[in-house]
Write a structure and sequence with these properties.
The chain has about 500 residues and is an alpha+beta fold. It is built from ten helices and 30 strands. The two termini are about 20 Å apart.
């Protein structure tokens, strides 16, 4: 989105200052004073001392200059255009970084998916360091991490190099690079303020499954999205994505996707065209608190509590149960449910892992063979014979649905026989948690009527991760019936 920037010019008066003093009647009054002047000899002496005393600081400054010099040619400015649902043209601006991978012979730009999500290929423009304007030849996107890959074909490009984000520690110094407010080739400096930031709400239209953000106080502003976070070796240690702000600008809290996560996603996109994600097949407690922890004989809130095990999944085959608490995943201590989701979904498909769980107050180990999350999506189309009439979970949507018949339609109070899928459960943290309500009826998906879960899966198979899907939803509230359209970003 195009934004305007107000530049404020600040001037200083060096010769005159004000001192606040207390008067006899108790009021603070400014008294006018004149700054003392330096003699030429005093000034010469102080300049000489500064030249001597700032040597170490100048060395640090020269190091930052080298880092900026080696990284800047790899940073690009991205501009995309698309037409809004109301018909007006919208301009989105962001940043990116040129990279290469052994998984592809192409050179490409890594950026945030939200920078180019709604634009067609021809409406994405990339401005590189020397001023050339190029267009991507192909776009790959992953909504679960908000990462996009733009393949490019141009001579004399300067790819950056990846760093190992696992080696970052809190306090390490970093540089954020990009085009804040459209001001290309900007560099800011700060430190890593925190690691492992999860459960961030990144806007109504953005649902990021895999969150493991680095937090930094290096200034990140609108337009920095997709730009690199650079370590002191001049390498990319993160992709800048979001800020926490009351003002709309930098308040010293910015978030970057760690390079190791970005690199895995990029390699998967280049190799498979999508990111293969493993899954357990459980529903986790998003509100696991101290009372529950005490009931389960835990010393404090930690791990991820299982509240449902889906049938015919790795979890059910490994005999995981309701109220099990996953404490460790393959030797890594699990902090909360989002941490476990992240650990599982970024594990290689087909890998056998060991879970340390707490069951009935006793610790035990369980081996689980992880399979592809897409298998779960396909299985969700088949009703479970062990739970007749309860509904079918559709994991991609975060909903549990059941076909509507005349009896159900009458009980819901509809005047005529409603057709579609009745929503029996809504995952509040799922992709449709803010848009679909309990007992809504999904009548159409992408203009296709859905009378069964198989119809739904068939309609969804025509779209991919990152696409916009239009749902026609029927509602009965307070004696009133209405139909609305919900746009879901997969």
């Amino acid at each position: 989105m195009k934004r305007s920037t107000t530049l404020i010019l600040c001037s200083s008066v060096l010769a005159v200052g004000f001192v606040i003093g207390m008067t006899a009647d108790g009021w603070l009054q400014p008294s006018r004073v004149r700054a003392s002047a330096l003699s030429y000899s005093d000034a010469d002496r102080l300049f000489a001392e500064l030249d001597s005393d700032t040597g170490s600081l100048m060395e640090s400054s020269r190091l930052l200059t080298k880092i900026a010099k080696v990284a800047t040619p790899s940073v690009v400015h991205i501009q995309s255009e698309y037409r809004s649902p109301r018909g007006s043209m919208v301009e989105e601006t962001g940043s990116g970084v040129i990279m290469t991978s052994p998984k592809s012979s192409d050179t490409f730009v890594v950026t945030n998916r939200h920078v180019i999500a709604n634009a067609k290929l021809k409406d994405i423009a990339i401005k590189i360091f020397d001023g050339r304007l190029i267009h991507p030849t192909h776009v790959l996107k992953d909504s679960a991490t908000d990462v996009a890959v733009l393949k490019i074909d141009a001579p004399n490009l300067h790819p950056a190099r990846w760093s190992n984000s696992d080696k970052l520690e809190i306090g390490h110094m970093v540089l954020a690079m990009g085009s804040p407010f459209g001001l290309s080739q900007s560099v800011t400096f700060g430190i890593i303020s925190a690691k492992g930031r999860r459960s961030l709400k990144l806007g109504k239209e953005t649902t990021v499954l895999n969150q493991d953000f680095l937090q930094t106080d290096a200034a990140i502003n609108p337009g920095n999205s997709g730009g690199p976070l650079i370590d002191l070796h001049g390498r990319v240690v993160g992709i800048n994505t979001a800020i926490a702000s009351n003002s709309g600008g930098n308040d010293g809290i910015g978030f970057s996707i760690p390079s190791n996560l970005v690199r895995r996603v990029v390699d998967q996109l280049l190799e498979h065209g999508r990111v293969q994600r493993a899954y357990l097949g459980v529903k986790l407690d998003p509100s696991f608190e101290a009372d529950e922890a005490r009931r389960l004989q835990l010393d404090r809130v930690r791990g991820a509590r299982i509240v449902e095990v889906y049938s015919k999944t790795p979890a059910s085959k490994a005999n995981l149960k309701f109220d099990d608490v996953v404490l460790e995943f393959n030797g890594t201590k699990v902090e909360d449910e989002n941490h476990l989701i992240n650990l599982v979904s970024l594990t290689a498909v087909g890998r056998k892992v060991t879970l340390s769980i707490l069951r009935n107050g006793k610790k035990m180990s369980v081996e689980v063979l992880l399979t592809d999350r897409d298998d779960l999506n396909r299985q969700s189309a088949v009703p479970s014979s062990s739970q007749p009439g309860v509904g079918v979970p559709v994991q991609t949507m975060g909903l549990t649905v059941h076909p509507v018949d005349d009896s159900i339609s009458n009980q819901l109070g509809f005047d005529d026989a409603a057709k579609g899928l009745l929503v029996l459960n809504v995952d509040s943290l799922g992709p449709l948690g803010k848009h679909i309500q309990l007992y809504d009826i999904i009548e159409e998906v992408s203009r296709t009527e859905v009378a069964s879960v198989n119809d739904l899966e068939q309609a969804l198979s025509n779209s991919e991760s990152g696409d916009s899907v239009v749902l026609k939803v029927r509602t009965h509230r307070n004696g009133m019936q209405s139909t609305r359209l919900v746009i879901w970003q997969r």
